[in-house]
Amino acid sequence: MKWPWKKKKLSFDDAAKFNWELDTNAELRQKLDELAKQYSDLSEKEYRRKFLRLFRENGLVIDSNQLDMLLLLRRKTDQMLLRQEANNGEETT
Predict the structure, then answer these.
(1) Which residues are CB-contacts of 47 (< 8 A; sequence separation ≥ 6)?
(2) What is the pTM of this model?
(3) How high is the pLDDT of residue 7?
């Protein structure tokens, strides 16, 4: 039985789709850049609503809490990759 008040858990597919869209969808990136330029004129709530709508339009339906988790995962992944790249650079010198 599905309970309507239970939160949808993020799946690996959700995280992969989020990263794929951010990395490869030029139209989405352009719209996100345009939204970023409006940041100072919007409330945080309105900015997040528009941000989530852009992803919804591209097939990824997530809520605000899931967005926070996906952004955190992306940041941590970037940090790990940069650390690994730095370590690989040290080994070759």
Answers:
(1) 35, 38, 39
(2) 0.74
(3) 65
7-46 exposure pattern, b = at least 16 Cβ within 10 A, e = fewer = eeebeeebbebbeebbeebeebeebbeeeeeeeeeeeeee
**Could you read off the pLDDT of 24-47 as tens digits, one per residue?**
999 999 999 999 999 999 999 999
Rounded to 5°, the CA angle 6-10-12 comes to 150
Q: Which conformational region is residue 11 in: left (phi greater than 0), alpha (psi within -120 to 50 degrees), or beta?
A: beta
- Take residue 8 and report the two structure tokens written for it: 């949808």
Give the tens place of pLDDT for each residue, 65-88.
Answer: 999 999 999 999 889 989 998 888
